[in-house]
Design a protein that fits this description.
Blueprint (H helix, E strand, L loop, with lengths): L7 H12 L3 H13 L3 H24 L6 H9 L1 H33 L6 H17 L2 H25 L22 H9 L20 H33 L4 H7 L11 H32 L5 H17 L3 H32 L17
């Protein structure tokens, strides 16, 4: 039996913590490359699209309050297809971890430890991630609440301070179709930033009040939409499109542009990175946690410890293959195709199967498998 340990508030913060990781630090650059001066409001529209996707997914999950995707996908689609779809979602979740590790290493080397050895920084970060995952869902959810709250408060403060250099002229024209570049990799790169909500496929059996899942997931994605749009608006208003295009890490450049007379803090980029590493941690940890949760239930494993520490070693090796910024952003783009399928097409397929099989939510589970931590 699964322990119902999660409140609706914790669910919302898990979705935020899983979504708002390293992607936001580079998001304005990708958005401007795709849509020029219209980037900030196009991001808002795109976010609304994924907010509807989160609502759609949560309503479906709510039909199976005692089960995760591992259990109800085979009932809707048959065992072979259900098994394959679960493997794809597990692959997406686990593939995010080494990308987040490499992103954390990059920004640490840029702002905190320019000569810090990669093996040490990545190793310590992965040890912390694996340890957090091993403590179980209730402990992890509480830690996530603290870390993502701290990151968002400090990050929002830095962004608001950046408005001292804001110039609205940089936002015009508001709609300029000639700036739109309909390149698949750019659009996928933007979409990748919103791919946090599929973790709700695994949350229903752990909720104290399953009926509140829909509202919590929808509000969280709408908050993320506002966050991404406002941050991109700020970057564009401060630097303009041309300068933003030349910035690999717009968030760091925004922090560096802030000047506070009489304040002893001279390096706001350092403050931002120290605050944002916990957000990268929550994304990596949530991806690893729910990927392993699904893996354990799918293959009916009795223990998770060996899986956790074995995967941590594999993630360490994989993060070492992503040798620079361009490598991990390229692989993020490839992963985005899978994420787009899981975030948008999979809920549609599952809903269609649900409508074609009335009463599937009343059927007895085929067996949960594994232990729910």
């Amino acid at each position: 039996m699964s322990r119902r340990v999660l409140s609706a508030k914790q669910v919302g913060r898990l979705v935020v913590g899983h979504t708002v990781g390293a992607a936001i630090l580079t998001l304005p650059n990708v958005a401007v490359r795709a849509f020029g001066s219209s980037a900030w409001w196009v991001l808002f529209v795109l976010g609304l699209f994924f907010t509807v996707g989160a609502w759609f997914t949560a309503v479906l999950v709510g039909r199976f309050p005692e089960e995760t995707l591992v259990e109800f996908a085979p009932k809707l689609l048959g065992r072979p297809l259900g098994f394959i779809l679960n493997l794809l979602l597990i692959l997406m979740l686990l593939s995010i971890v080494p990308i987040e590790v490499r992103a954390m290493l990059e920004i640490t080397n840029i702002s905190i430890l320019p000569l810090g050895p990669a093996w040490f920084i990545s190793g310590i970060f992965l040890l912390a991630v694996a340890y957090g995952v091993s403590k179980g869902l209730d402990t992890f959810a509480q830690v996530n609440e603290i870390l993502i709250g701290l990151a968002l408060i400090i990050g929002a403060t830095v962004v608001v301070l950046g408005w001292q250099n804001f110039d609205s002229i940089h936002l015009y024209p508001l709609f300029h179709p000639k700036d739109f570049r309909w390149q698949p990799m750019l659009l996928i790169g933007l979409s990748m930033a919103f791919f946090g909500y599929p973790i709700i496929y695994y949350l229903a059996p752990f909720l104290k009040d399953p009926d509140r899942l829909v509202g919590s997931a929808t509000r969280s994605m709408f908050f993320i939409t506002l966050l991404f749009s406002f941050f991109t608006l700020t970057i564009q208003g401060v630097f303009g499109d041309k300068e933003t295009l030349n910035q690999s890490w717009p968030a760091l450049e925004l922090a560096k542009s802030i000047h506070l007379p009489g304040i002893f803090i001279e390096r706001m980029d350092l403050v931002l990175i120290l605050a944002w590493i916990p957000a990268i941690y929550t994304t990596a940890s949530a991806s690893m946690f729910f990927g392993i949760l699904a893996l354990v239930r799918l293959f009916k494993l009795r223990s998770t410890s060996l899986v956790i520490w074995g995967l941590a070693a594999i993630f360490y090796w994989l993060s070492g293959l992503l040798t620079n910024y361009f490598e991990w952003t390229k692989w993020s783009g490839y992963l985005g195709f899978l994420g787009l399928f899981i975030s948008i097409l999979l809920p549609l397929v599952l809903w269609l199967a649900y409508l074609m099989r009335p009463g599937a939510d009343q059927a007895e589970p085929k067996g949960e498998g594994g232990t729910a931590r």
